[in-house]
Amino acid sequence: MFFQEGINYSAEFEGLFSNTVTGLPEGKRPDGSYVRKHSPKWEAGDEETDHWFVYILQFSDKTYYVGHTRDLRVRLTEHRDNKTKGTRNKSFELVWFTTVYSREFAETLEADLKETRDQNERFLRGMILEFRDCVKEMDIFNT
Question: Is the whole-model pTM more than 0.85?
């Protein structure tokens, strides 16, 4: 499910599917897999960036949002300020994140996590619990 060595992730996927045509969420294929995507306008700062964040938000109804960004603090502010369609008017908590070193890998990991969320939410919850335990163990937020 996650990034696998030897697979060509750089190939462009054919088109996005829209709700009106397929009845599927935008960016999702009929086989349940997700299309890696980003807006070309986001590429403006990519050359100056050496890392990206992939993150998971948990809504109050216990559902999950998965995304990626160059600047996690700015992106979380955009979510909180209702500037993002997927999180608009929803309360959430940041429950997991990691850093990767290319946009391509961030997009791939985001798509893989979305598939995991849809197919095996229990595994995703386990990842989040392990992350929380690690944060508590390191005590990084209480210093």
Answer: no
Q: What are phi and psi of 71, to 5 degrees?
A: -130, 100
Specify if 109 maps to a domain: yes
Q: What is the CATH number of the domain that holds 75?
A: 3.40.1440
Q: Report the distance separating Cα 97 and Cα 55, nearest Å.
A: 4
> Between residues 40 and 25, which one has the greater pLDDT?
40
Segments forming the whole domain that contains residue 89:
50-142
Q: Residue 9 burial (CB < 10 Å; 0-12/13-18/19+)?
A: middle
Nearest to 52 by CA among 68, 63, 41, 74: 68
> What does the pLDDT average to over 127-136?
92
What total number of domains does the chain contain? 1
d(CA 22, CA 18): 6
Residue 67 — left, alpha, or beta (φ > 0 → left; ψ -120 to 50 → alpha)? Answer: beta
